[in-house]
Amino acid sequence: MNNIKNIGIGLLIMVGLSISSCSKDFLDEEQNSQYSTDYFETSEGLQALTVSLYGNIRWHFGFEWSYANTLYGTDEFTNANDLTNEMWNTYDNRFGPIGATASTGAANGNATNPAALWDEMYYGIASCNTIIANAEKIDDIAIRNRCLAHAYFLRGYNYYRLTAQYGGVVLQTVPATGVVRNFTRSTEEQCWEQVISDLRNSYNLFAGEVFTYGKGITWTKATAAHFLAKALLFRASERNDKWNSAYKAKDLDEAIQACSYAISARGPLTNNYSDLYANWTGIDCPNEQLSEILMAAGHNGDAATVGRFGNRTYSYFAPQFSSFSGGWVKRGVWIGSMDFQRCRPTEYAYAVYDHVNDARMWKTFRTVYGANTVVTANAGVKIGDPGIVMILNTKDDNTYNGAKFGASVQAPTWTDANGRLPEWTTGKRQTATAGTLAAIKGQYVPNSSVLYQNGTYVAPTFKNQPICNFFAGINKTEDGSRTAERGDAHRDVIMARLAETYLVRAECYARLQQYGNAMQDINVIRARAQWKSGENRSYYNDGSQAFKANALNTGTAATNFAASNLDMNTYYLSNPTIAVTTAASDLRLTSFPANLPAEDEAIIAKVGAASDYERALNFILNEYTRELLGEWQRWETLSRTGMLIKRAKAFNAEAAPNITANKHELRPIPQSFIDGLLNDDGSNLSDAQKKEWQNPGY
Question: Residue 388: which H helix or E strand, with range?
């Protein structure tokens, strides 16, 4: 939808899917010939169009925009040496309404245009408008309500995304006919009222937790409740303080009620954090059906249903392991990610965790890659030895002050306080109960890094490119089911889950100064995050394991899989004073917002939070990171809470010089849209009129 004339027109089929029945999971449907628009004024056609709405959310994960407008330019992630979407992180002069191309300074032709989200959200809204306008043509009341619930939900969700990113937008709520080139921009207040109205309607129309369209990807009453709560919280948040005073108390109360429904309907949380992401074993595996998952973009292995957008998220979080490893770790389908090094964690993203007691850190960051090829025959490295080892130590750790890290170094020869040698090993694989591994003193390790030496954050200095490309990435998108190195991933992408619902409710309680209730919800999250009795803290796995069932898992590829994925992390190397243990840990707060954990106090001090509310809010923002790191929403969360500028300046060295208050809390309205507008008399907009359409500063 790259032309103004398409806004509001009832676009026919989402992502190329034409569905003839609602009786099966839409991902399993065969593609049929397309229909005329008259088909979508029949009961059968409206049901088919309702099923196809699920395709619209796939767009979010089909290309570089997945991280550009959600993760870049925040406290959590910065760019590595790949500069495809650098301007979204640095907020430099290439970031503006027209977008950046190779001819205007972008690194390549894949840079995300600010119009991308705008266009695709209206594409989905048009289909929703068609369903809502024609729903009375569905005679069966239960089916009619189901279709309406879905249409109101996606329209509310899409307007949520538009308003969160751009502020006030065009509210098109009825099907348009013909070419429309004259619109009114609604205020942000009007837009949030529309979002909340749509999500309330959806919540009221859904028949509880009734799964109608498929496994794991189905929207239900709890899904609508979750996003209704988020929309109410957004309206009550700092970005809207100029006009939201009359809404705050009622919105927060309603948001708490909506969260409480979702929590009671879909709880409890999944017991093991790894089951959400790391323990993904293949297409449509049971972990994609966990009750904690409220919304996901569904994918599978059927090429006929891929549509316009496949899942490309596996490309964006891994370091450039095949480059800086000197060839010891070659990439391929046997490793669940591509090493495109788009999203490099900031110092904050590592420091926000309790490195000893928070299991989420070690179940999320990949710190060891095995050597799957021999580059130098006499180097003392064998297939299956650690080829890359990344130590995630803390600022106060002095163990590695005199050590040499980087490429082609020997393993350190020291022992730690417990008399242990570093725990990388020769060719030995862990199991979930194996405990820590011994090491060979002085063993050659092709590549290694550390976060801190002499109290200084040295992680960015490890690189073989101008900007750091050697870092510990996160594993939430790893997919060993791919059948081509650069092919689509086949796993679902989680878009909402119950742990976030708890944190949304905790934030609402904190805003109402009900800190005891907030702490209770926070502790539910932190209790799941702590180590359980019997867990092996140095065990690691991720979605690469899906390669075990991949038809390509034979011969050399099978050897590469076993050699690359060593099922181990650097927990004990990173915490060298900790004795080997399988004891449970305890992360639960005993007071809030006073006397917070040391890692939180350090962050709170850096952003200058002083009052009880400021401390509570910043702690909750930290907990959002620990629980939801990389889950496609950080920019909107920080913009909503008025913390984007402060936190980006404090924790993102690349964003800090250019990010500007009263400008970068909103995205630029696409210039292609503004240029296509006409006045009532058919004349073009004047420059002054165009400026009125644009957000401040652009």
Answer: strand 386-391
